[in-house]
Amino acid sequence: MEKHCPYCGSKVKSSDRFCIVCGKPLLSNLPEKNTKNQKELEEEIEELSQNETESEKKKKKKSKGKDKDEDQEEEKDINEKIKPLPNEIKEQIKLNIELKQILEKKKKLDEKLEEYQKAVKSDKYELDYDFAEDITKKLTAAKTVVQELNEKQKEVEIQLEKPFKVQQLKDAIEKKVYQLKNLSKEYKLKKIGKDVFKKLKKKYKQEKIDLDVEIEDLRKAMEMWATELKMDKNDIKSEQRLNKGRYSSKEISEEEFLEKDKQYKKEIAELELMIKSIEELAE
User: Fold this and answer.
1) How far is residue 48 CA from its own chain's centroid?
2) N or C, which end of the chain is more exposed by having fewer CB within 10 Å?
3) How far apart are CA 230 and CA 63, in angstroms?
4) Calpha distance 45→146 (Å, rounded)
5) Full-prediction pTM beyond 0.70?
């Protein structure tokens, strides 16, 4: 039968007087006069060991909780350090999204217009009065909507700043890199003096650093906004699943379920478009 140290639990031989791991004397080798009943001592040690284990567990749990709090605090600090996205940038992003929606609608309407125009040239249009009247109404309505979308597109494009801020900063950074390279080239060709070279190099480098910081801050703020929108999307998806559960349990009617589900799908699609647009503009 294997023997174990009552203190640390390590395996020991029957002939060992001391544990080779923790160095404490083994009960079986203690003099009789220095011990109580061996069984009682073993029980006491086992109890102490269990108490120590529980104490360690509590410490670990406390430490883990502390680590978690520290992580949350660190994440909070990081979020606080990220500069909020300026309102004018948010407005520009929304205008970009609106323009994208207008162009998508126009694309779908162009397909419909092509379909209706083909119908106008068909024999059925000439022979079937009701069919011709229906196609004419649809064609007129589609043309009206296209006209309205064209007007809306013009309004949006007037307000839209092109290119987007991120691209402006990227262009400015490229310009600074070119200026630094050209400056070094001119200096090597001895077209400018050392003092002028040093002053301009310092100036261009600092300007580039400032631009790098600005674009990084902007991208982080956009990323944070996209993350918030993703959380909103997940919340709506949870509501959508709950709505389905309510319908399955017969709490709500099919009509109520379909109406709410349609609304949830619309909201999710809008959020997905916003997230995608933000991520594309941040590149």
Assistant:
1) 49
2) N
3) 32
4) 87
5) no
Give pLDDT tens digits for 24-50.
777 554 444 444 445 554 555 455 455
Residue 274: pLDDT over 50: yes
Q: Max Cα separation, the chain?
A: 122
Q: Where are the beta strands (DSSP E) in 116-184?
A: none
Task: Summarize pLDDT for 132-166 with one digit per residue, the tens.
Answer: 999 999 999 999 999 999 999 999 999 998 899 99
- Beta strands per DSSP E along 25-90: none
Report the amino acid identity of residue 105: K
* CA 221 – CA 224 distance, rounded (Å): 5
Phi and psi at residue 4, to the nearest 5°? -130, 150
**The tokens of 243 are what?**
């709505």
The per-residue pLDDT for range 163-200, each reduced to its tens digit, is 999 999 999 999 999 999 999 999 999 999 999 999 99
DSSP for residue 250: T
Write out the H or E segment, with its range, that includes residue 12.
strand 11-12
Tokens representing 146?
Answer: 């296209």
Indicate the domain borders of the chain.
3-70, 85-162, 164-283
